[in-house]
Automatic annotation (TrEMBL):
UniProt keyword annotations, A-Z: ATP-binding, Cell membrane, Disulfide bond, Glycoprotein, Kinase, Membrane, Nucleotide-binding, Receptor, Serine/threonine-protein kinase, Signal, Transferase, Transmembrane, Transmembrane helix
Residues reported to bind ATP: 68, 418
The name this protein goes by in its record: Protein kinase domain-containing protein
Gene Ontology terms for molecular function: ATP binding; protein serine/threonine kinase activity; transmembrane receptor protein tyrosine kinase activity
KW Protein biosynthesis (keyword) present: no
CDD domains reported in the protein's UniProt record: STKc_IRAK
Pfam families, sorted: PK_Tyr_Ser-Thr (PF07714)
Region (Disordered): 1-21
Listed InterPro entries: ANXUR1/2-like, Kinase-like_dom_sf, Prot_kinase_dom, Protein_kinase_ATP_BS, Ser-Thr/Tyr_kinase_cat_dom, Ser/Thr_kinase_AS
SMART domains associated with the record: S_TKc
């Protein structure tokens, strides 16, 4: 990366060598786009400086951009500028603002983003007085929560991003009111493999949104973002600023004022009068509970962003259901106050994402404009020693997979090289589908495609090498002693990858169509990565349930019954397949288990029947029986049953699956201490006192 030196020339920026995928714009392009920074094009102003609207060339297209120019008098400077470039060049998610590029010329530091026409959530809540309905507000909150969840868990191999400045002015709204998280100048990177990772840092952020624990100790965690998001939830509900100077001085802080009002049973007076008649008692209760949990003083007791997404989706589903029963005029007559003393949810609701459009169908693949690298065939021959059998590490429907060393940039990298067998039933369409899909995706829990080679009849894919192979091998061939918590972590990782495919790509979503234990690869630290996208289908993300008539493809034992009986493929088809994976992990039996009676070869059928009969003893892998708490087993089985529901509409989303599995893991970790050892041992004996019985 380059930074300006004092004489106006460019010099190497010390912190980052440009792994940046974003473009470096010429200063002349910026002047042209902004008419020499004409004041009539100013669309905003913040701590960084002014923001201009302008047209700029991005790739081969002329696009509308938001051009943020650093004010030389700004307290934010080069550090925040490079942090923003560094951060956004690594991130890609439909609920994060996209950075087109940057310009660094003499003293000018300029960031060029996608233009988000509806501005900030803050503007609509507090300046413009936009009449946002309760359902619109819920959807905005869910979108922002999804973006933060991606930052915390889905951004890279060894890091998660702590935003550190979550607030309503950093939530931008697209033309369809979809929320996008922005402004990463204060963000910090930390390892993702520790749920409570702490970064010691100087306190920065915005008053009113500060995590009290962070403010008093300087310890920054992902839960600091959760606290700030809790403030945003209160803002959305009350339509009052985080620091509201119209209140008594003792109650300037929205959080304290709202919490005091709730304790006093005076919730009615804090809710924005514009939406009071739109909120059911149950949904209000659940929403406030989520906000209150986010605002807990102890960071460890706050939910994760994944859990918040699940909770808000549940509120949205309940509210939409209520809306369908009560017309707007009748809802205004409902007495939603006071709240009942016990607001427990009596049942769990499965929530499809809201639909914003009428597009239908899932697109077939075309030969893509490949942003990934095209390797020359001699490079492949050199890396594999002319496809020497000693380097063979796997064989599948596509062909053979070789381990090899290949130059990627300036360094040699160990890779997995998958070569199409010319006799394979999988051909060019599968090859291009894999390239097309993986070139669009970037997530920690998806395998990375480094490039491809297409030479004469040779079709070859080059991936990052994952040393621990497939989950299938460890469960069924190697007999690896995986603990219950290891298995849970693997399931959570795979679920996160699938959730990103289903919801995090932007204008499209991906249905994997071949989720199974052999397509879940394991990194050296046992982190799961989804692979094999040759059968995947892409569809428009603005539909919650898109169907397509398509040839049945996939793996027996994992196929969604609705898919193979109707030919209709949806994201819920992947959810069904993942339910089978969960059973495999619990039972250590194959999806098609020929050691069983012919009538019960299918693991899903056999396990579900055993569950109905109350005979869990015979389905759980003996090696982990005494590691599972009764509650966690019960909840895990509930997740499985939800995924395997015969009606796709009744299955959970992958986001919900993530949240539930994370919750199970949290409870299990609490149980895994000496005080609970006796209880776990007794429970294990409930299954069997002797091995093999």
């Amino acid at each position: 990366m380059l930074a300006a030196s004092g004489d106006g020339k460019e010099s190497d920026h010390p912190s980052t060598e440009s792994s940046q995928t974003c473009r470096k714009f010429e200063y002349s392009e910026i002047l042209l786009a902004t008419d020499n920074f004409d004041e009539s094009l100013v669309i905003g102003k913040g701590g960084f400086g002014k923001v201009y609207k302008g047209n700029i060339i991005n790739g081969s297209s002329l696009v509308v951009a938001a051009i943020k120019r650093l004010d030389s008098m700004s307290t934010q400077g080069a550090t925040e500028f490079w942090a923003e470039v560094e951060m956004l060049s690594k991130l890609r998610h439909c609920h994060l603002v996209s950075l087109f590029g940057y310009c660094n010329y003499e003293k000018e530091m300029i960031l060029i983003y996608e233009y988000i026409p509806n501005g900030t959530l803050e503007d609509h809540l507090h300046k413009l007085g936009t009449p946002l309905s309760w359902l619109q507000r819920l959807k905005i909150c869910i979108g922002a929560a999804r973006g933060l969840d991606y930052l915390h868990t889905g951004t890279g191999i060894e890091f998660g991003v702590i935003h550190r400045d979550v607030k309503s002015s950093n939530i931008l709204l697209h033309e369809r009111w979809a929320a996008k998280i922005s402004d990463f100048g204060l963000s910090k990177i930390g390892p993702t493999n520790q749920p409570s990772t702490t970064v010691i840092t100087g306190v920065k952020g915005t008053f009113g949104y500060f995590d009290p624990n962070y403010f008093t100790t300087g310890k920054l965690t992902r839960k600091s973002d959760v606290y700030a998001f809790g403030v945003v939830l209160m803002e959305v509900l009350c339509r009052k600023r985080a620091v509201d100077r119209t209140l008594d001085e003792d109650h300037w802080g929205l959080v304290m004022w709202a919490q005091d009002s709730i304790k006093e049973g005076n919730l009615k007076h804090i809710i924005d009068s514009g939406i009071r008649g739109q909120i059911s008692t149950k949904c209000l209760n659940e929403f406030v509970q989520i906000a209150e949990k986010c605002l807990l003083r102890n960071p460890k007791l706050r939910p994760t962003m994944a859990e918040i997404v699940v909770g808000l989706n549940s509120v949205l589903a309940s509210e939409e259901k209520t809306s369908s029963f009560f017309p707007p005029d009748d809802r205004k007559k409902l007495d939603i106050f006071p709240l009942p003393s016990n607001g427990e949810n009596s049942g769990r609701t499965v929530v499809p994402l809201p639909s914003n459009g009428d597009n239908s169908g899932i697109s077939s693949f075309r030969e893509p404009s490949h942003p990934c690298r095209q390797f020359d065939f001699p490079e492949i021959l050199l890396a594999t020693h002319n496809f020497h059998e000693s380097l063979l590490i796997g064989v599948g429907g596509f062909g053979k997979v070789y381990k090899g060393n290949i130059m990627n940039g300036s360094s040699a990298e160990v890779v997995a090289i998958k070569r199409l067998n010319t006799m394979s039933s999988e051909g060019a369409s599968v090859f291009w589908a894999e390239v097309e899909t993986l070139s669009k995706l970037r997530h920690y829990h998806l395998v990375s495609l480094l490039g491809y080679c297409n030479y004469e009849k040779e079709m070859i894919l080059i991936y990052n090498y994952l040393p621990n192979g497939t989950l299938e091998h460890h469960l069924h061939k190697l007999g690896t002693p995986l603990s219950w918590l290891q298995r849970l972590n693997i399931c959570i990782g795979a679920a996160r990858g699938l959730d990103y495919l289903h919801t995090g790509m932007g204008i499209d979503f991906v249905v994997h169509r071949n989720v199974n234990t052999s397509t879940i690869l394991l990194h050296e630290n046992w982190e799961a990565k989804i692979s094999s996208f040759g059968l995947s289908k892409i569809g428009p993300a603005n539909q919650s349930l898109t169907f397509v008539n398509t040839l049945i493809k996939g793996t027996l034992g994992y196929l969604d019954p609705d898919y193979y009986s109707t030919g209709r493929l949806t994201r819920k088809s992947d959810v069904y397949s993942f339910g089978v994976v969960l059973l495999e992990v619990l039972c250590r039996k194959r999806a098609i288990e020929r050691s069983l009676d012919v009538e019960t070869w299918a693991l899903a059928t056999w396990a579900q029947q055993s569950i109905k009969e109350g005979n869990l003893k015979r389905i759980i892998d003996f090696d982990i029986r005494d590691q599972i708490s009764p509650y966690c087993l019960q909840e895990f089985v509930r997740v499985v049953e939800g995924c395997l529901h015969s009606s796709p509409k009744q299955r959970p989303t992958m986001a919900e699956v993530v949240g539930l599995l994370v919750h199970i893991r949290t409870i299990q970790e609490k149980m895994n201490n000496p005080l609970k050892l006796a209880q776990r041992t007794i429970f294990g004996r409930m299954f069997d006192n002797r091995r093999g019985h």
